[in-house]
Amino acid sequence: MIVAEHVSKHFKRHRREPGLRGSLRTMFSSQYDLVRAVDDVSFEVPAGVKIAYIGANGAGKSTTIKLLTGIMRPTTGQVRVDGLDPHRRRVEVAHRIGVVFGQRSQLWWDLPVLDSFRVLRHIYEVPRAVYDRNMRLFRDRLDLGALGNTPVRQLSLGQRMRAEIAASLLHDPAVLFLDEPTIGLDLVLKQAVRDLINHVNAELGTTVMLTSHDIGDITGICDQALVVDRGAIVHQGTMRELLRSVDTRAVTFEYAAGSVTEAEALQIIAAELPDVRAIPAESGRIRVEYPVERWSARQVIAVLLNRFDLTDVLVPDADLETLLRRIYAGSPAEPVSVGDGA
Ligand SMILES: Nc1ncnc2c1ncn2[C@@H]1O[C@H](COP(=O)(O)OP(=O)(O)OP(=O)(O)O)[C@@H](O)[C@H]1O
């Protein structure tokens, strides 16, 4: 359904020099840095799959979504969505895909929400029965009726996101691209959005590609994961396989106030549990990340019980957080100098 073959997207960025004189020189300079936002990426996402596109800030996720939705053209390589080149066949592809960019609105700023939906219905030539069915669904699941006559520009971020998600699904798209879709939503609405996406996937077989920094979105929606690091794919498989690749796990604990200082606690851990990483967390907790080939949860907890006056211990099962922390620790695309540009 979604295919990327050796896709790269490079951006030229004017090389900036510091200071006023540098700024003036920058304006007339032909020196560029080249950013490899996406670098020779190939993947295939079959129909009906819900896949998370995971990577650190600047790893190239939004750029990939822009390539797949036809907003940008690859520098080299090819993308296909439902068999079509999304840039060349933008209109046909637009009828088959839904897109949500959490950071950017797709709605008409001055139109009341319901009017936007009426306009979209005509643009996408949505049959009356489909329109009515979907509007009922959005009223039930996203409380869309409450937003009815408010112009989009007067909506809060959370209200606008509900409208954006509904708009992306109005025409029963075969593929749904979601870039940070639950940004600004409270916990209840985040769950409502995840439920709605899972519902349309189950009912209509909609293929879903999601980027999100919210772990709940990834685990609550996706069954597969594509991991991108510095513009290149480093893992593709099921969520279960991704979690199995975790070689570090974590235990978080809390000790009785006043029993030891944080510095003492860190020293004890360093002495008793070599090769672990102890990270002070909020409200006096410490997160202990341990390599699974060296330590088991049981051994780590035994040491903690022995050395601390524990008031709480938390052992998360599927430790996607540790994995993502490591992925996100990878640096973004490094610009390389390309000398004199055109
Ligand atoms: N139009 C552009 N011109 C120049 N550089 C760009 C442009 N768009 C993106 N980049 C650069 O390409 C790289 C990848 O950006 P992109 O927005 O795709 O990352 P991302 O993975 O979506 O990040 P985030 O998680 O922060 O949204 C970054 O280094 C970014 O600065």
UniProtKB/TrEMBL annotation:
Species, as recorded: Actinoplanes sandaracinus
Domain ABC transporter, chain residue ranges per copy: 22-255
Subcellular location: Cell membrane
Record GO terms (molecular function): ATP binding
A UniProt-annotated Pfam family: ABC_tran
Domain of life, source organism: Bacteria
UniProt protein name: ATP-binding cassette domain-containing protein
Entry-linked SMART domains: AAA
Protein's membrane topology: Peripheral membrane protein
Main localization, broad class: membrane
Keywords in alphabetical order: Antibiotic resistance, ATP-binding, Nucleotide-binding, Transport
SUPFAM superfamilies for this protein: P-loop containing nucleoside triphosphate hydrolases
PROSITE patterns from the UniProt entry: ABC_TRANSPORTER_1, ABC_TRANSPORTER_2
